[in-house]
From TrEMBL:
Protein name per Swiss-Prot or TrEMBL: Nucleobase:cation symporter-2 family protein
Classification via PANTHER family: PURINE PERMEASE C1399.01C-RELATED (PTHR42810), URIC ACID TRANSPORTER UACT (PTHR42810:SF4)
Protein species of origin: Streptomyces bangladeshensis
Main location group: membrane
Membrane topology: Multi-pass membrane protein
Membrane spanning residue stretches: 49-69, 75-96, 103-123, 129-151, 158-182, 194-211, 223-240, 260-279, 345-368, 374-394, 406-428, 434-454
Keywords of the record: Cell membrane, Membrane, Transmembrane, Transmembrane helix, Transport
One Pfam family recorded for the sequence: Xan_ur_permease
Family indicated by similarity: Belongs to the nucleobase:cation symporter-2 (NCS2) (TC 2.A.40) family.
InterPro entries: NCS2, UacT-like, Xan_ur_permease
Amino acid sequence: MSQTICPTSLKPTSTVTCYPTGGAAVAAHPVDEKLPALKMATSGLQHVAAMYAGVVAPPLIVGAAIGLSAADLTFLTGACLFTAGLATFLQTLGFWKIGARLPFVNGVTFAGVAPMTAIVVATEDKSDALPIIFGAVIVAGLLGFLAAPFFSKAIRFFPPVVTGSVITLIGVSLLPVAFGWAQGPDPRADDYGSTTYLTLAGITLLIVLLLRRFTRGFVKQIAVLLGLIAGTLVAIPFGVTDFGPVADADVVGFPTPFHFGAPQFQLAAILSLCVVMVVSMTESTADMLALGEIVERPADERTIAAGLRADTLGSAISPLFNGFMCSAFAQNIGLVAMTRIRSRYVVATGGGFLVLMGLCPMAASLIAVVPRPVLGGAGVVLFGSVAASGIQTLVRAGLDKDNNVLIVAVSLAVGIVPITAPEFYHAFPETAKIVLDSGISTGCVTAVVLNLLFNHLGRGREAQDVTHPMEAGEEIAAAH
């Protein structure tokens, strides 16, 4: 009689891969499923479309601060796309103990923009700015790689009440990005937030919603990609769609190693980006927990350690090809949640597109044709789906306990501060603001600390059942 070997670390409701020793294997878990080529390609391209703006924004901002020429700015952007693809391969396909092997897209973390810009300002010779940044990223990446297994042990402090709060914050924190895209490409322009831009965003949102409501199967799953294409076509008569980037781009271009000079190692820059690395690892841990819930393959300590190794190794390698620090992209979690396409090979295909875009600037420019308001309309659906997934997790978190209600209430409040009051921490040092201005990080830390305080320390005192967060618990009611 043949024996069946199945993974035991998954939820009972998950579909798993079982390998009978004397027969054929049954259906694989959706995360490990290999889809037909066309579906794999279009779904992977949809992931690229969802995160493209987030990847190219940091090099554009930093490059502009340095004063790079148009050619060097294009080169830097292509390098970041190329290294994002490499980091995505590490995360989705993995090797040895590296890679979460979940449908994770990796790209340039926006948390590093402010400190990198500060390094540029502090550097007298601007030609040394990028080598100094690259040297700091390499050191931060290597230190993060060594710290990954220790950092992953924090998994025990992430029960549903914590993960649900963080997932909700991820979605809420990303929504302003979509709203900014919807208003136009340049906040300083006179037409920023014009009715034309907002109408295009609304049309794109409507198209995505109609496709999701009235179509089925594959068309329904790629509704966001179709919405982006349709929105771009609709934008042509308005004069918003610009095909100039395609005409001006080269067909082939390789990110030559150390194009901007050999890395330089300065202590202040290294310390600054080490702080960014801690923030990035905190957010990546939260993202892995969120994605694990969505794909029904919960991220355990081993998975998180492997995922953090991929993040940090990708960051350490990235500067060799003129790229910046890499991290998991939260916006693509929303795409997975909405489409329910959970295959990591789809995301790996997206990583392949990113590599090709880095090698072919003309291909990269095709995504750049999509107007920012069109991206904003689709982003409302994507990022809102992340917040909805967090709410679903909170439903299972035991909110009938007053302790858990307080944890959620305070964590969400602290995490929303940078969104609702961007200047709230203006008096703090720049290094502290790197952490404080990230609502995901502050909310995550708050949730973990409050969970320790209320649910771990002094376990003899059980949480009280309440029907409302302001209602007194049983002990208080008895005392009265």
